[in-house]
Amino acid sequence: MVVGAASTAHADQAEDFNAFVQVLAIPVYAHSCGIMMDKAVMDAINAEVVSKMNAAGVSEEKGVEIQGQMVEEFKANADCTEGSDDRTNFDAMLKAYEGN
User: CB of 97 within 8 A of CB of 41?
Assistant: First the structure.
């Protein structure tokens, strides 16, 4: 039973980490593509990033490291073009926060 509980805890932590990375991707994409966001929306997203980071058990130092890696990857690979899959996904994620 301990193995099952450990397995579940690991799966939960992986889900928490993925949620952290997904929320962090919003400001990283915006930064990489030069997109300005409303301050209230940015504040809400930043609060969510911190919440998800804490839930995933990621230290602030590690979070900053992950963000730096994402910035480099996004600068190299993100498609900032209106109508691209990347931009469409960003717009949808941003819209969810603009409604709050």
Answer: yes
Report how far residue 79's alpha carbon sits from residue 85's, in angstroms, rounded to the nearest whole number.
8
Q: What are phi and psi of 82, to 5 degrees?
A: -55, 135
Cα(68)–Cα(16) distance, rounded to whole angstroms? 19
State the Cα–Cα distance between residues 16 and 41, nearest whole angstrom.
22
Contact 79, 87 (CB under 8 A): yes
Q: Give the whole-angstrom CA distance, residue 64 versus residue 57.
A: 13
Taking only the tens place, the pLDDT of each residue in 39-80 is 999 999 999 999 999 999 999 999 999 999 999 999 999 999
CB atoms within 10 A of CB 51: 13
Find where tokens 């911190």 sit.
50
pTM of the predicted model over 0.70: yes
